[in-house]
């Protein structure tokens, strides 16, 4: 089991759990590229589709940064390209809903695919390599003293510590995904005859509860497939910035 993000001291967390409540605090990216240093992760989310002709190249660029220390990389497959003749094998309607929420928060005219959102604060259309790396490095240098995160009770619960709740409140989100690469052979649509490769494919997104700035404990999704990981994100409700994140690895 691996965690990313700050760890809540057990005594401080336990004292506040009984008060019940929920909370989140501004995301703080990590010290750039130092794998040995304790740091807050940069959360990098790719919205892509198997039926999108321009997505395979973006997937590859996204995969090139997914293994960087201090990065939580998540791939969401959207379903609105299915009309071209290929039904995306990983897509769910709620993933497109998450992308639309970012459109509103980032005040974009429309959604685009492929699209990368970094820490819920900014986008990189098409996952252009230089722009993507620069955005990750800039977010990694930002430090806003986020709420601490700790997995407890053998990975059945996650604790979020105290901090300043953003305007409009925050929520704790569990993103279940399959770590590593997966390949899909496409037999219809714009990518017919191609093998499309994805990394860290998201399987489900679930809101665990609100976070109000006080320490709280949340139950993680109880049923996961073997090999699946869970990323816990503390995220502002209104502007959608991610305050902190942590990963519970399989096993």
Share of residues in helices: 10-25%
The helix-strand sequence is HEHEHEEHEEEEEEE
Question: How is the main sheet built?
Answer: 4 strands, mixed
Query: How many separate helices?
Result: 4
Strand content: 25-35%
Protein structure class: alpha+beta
Topology:
Layout: H1 10-17, E1 42-48, H2 55-66, E2 71-77, H3 93-106, E3 115-118, E4 122-125, H4 129-140, E5 149-152, E6 157-160, E7 170-185, E8 195-211, E9 216-219, E10 229-236, E11 242-248
Parallel strand pairs: 1-2
Antiparallel strand pairs: 1-3, 3-4, 5-6, 6-9, 7-8, 7-10, 10-11
Structure commentary:
With 251 residues, this protein is α+β, with helices and mostly antiparallel strands. It has helices at 10-17, 55-66, 93-106, 129-140; strands spanning 42-48, 71-77, 115-118, 122-125, 149-152, 157-160, 170-185, 195-211, 216-219, 229-236, 242-248. The strands form 3 sheets. The protein has a 4-stranded mixed sheet with strand order 2-1-3-4, sandwiched between helices. A hairpin with a 4-residue loop joins β5 (149-152) and β6. The radius of gyration is 18 Å and the shape is globular. Residues 1-38 have low confidence and may be disordered.
Features:
251 residues, alpha+beta, 4-stranded mixed β-sheet, 4-stranded antiparallel β-sheet, globular, disordered N terminus
Overview in brief:
The protein has 4 helices and 11 strands, in the order αβαβαββαβββββββ.
């Amino acid at each position: 089991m691996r965690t990313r993000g700050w760890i809540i001291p057990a005594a401080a967390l336990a004292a506040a759990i009984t008060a019940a409540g929920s909370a989140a605090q501004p995301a703080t990216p990590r010290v750039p590229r130092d794998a040995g240093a304790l740091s807050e992760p940069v959360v990098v989310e790719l919205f892509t589709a198997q039926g999108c002709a321009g997505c395979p190249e973006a997937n590859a660029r996204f995969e090139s940064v997914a293994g960087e220390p201090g990065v939580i990389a998540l791939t969401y497959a959207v379903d609105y390209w299915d009309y071209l003749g290929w039904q995306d094998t990983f897509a769910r309607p709620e993933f497109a809903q998450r992308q639309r929420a970012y459109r509103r928060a980032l005040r974009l005219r429309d959604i685009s695919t492929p699209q990368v959102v970094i820490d819920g604060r900014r986008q990189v259309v098409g996952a252009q390599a230089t722009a993507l790396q620069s955005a990750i490095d800039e977010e990694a240098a930002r430090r806003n003293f986020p709420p601490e995160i700790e997995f407890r009770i053998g990975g059945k619960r996650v604790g979020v510590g105290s901090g300043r709740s953003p305007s409009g409140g925050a929520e704790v989100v569990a993103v279940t995904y399959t770590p590593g690469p997966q390949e899909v052979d496409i037999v219809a649509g714009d990518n017919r005859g191609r093998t499309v490769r994805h990394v860290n494919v998201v399987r489900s997104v679930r809101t665990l509860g609100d976070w109000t700035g006080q320490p709280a404990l949340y139950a993680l999704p109880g049923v996961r497939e073997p090999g699946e990981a869970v990323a816990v994100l503390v995220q502002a409700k209104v502007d959608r910035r991610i305050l902190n994140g942590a990963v519970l690895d399989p096993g």
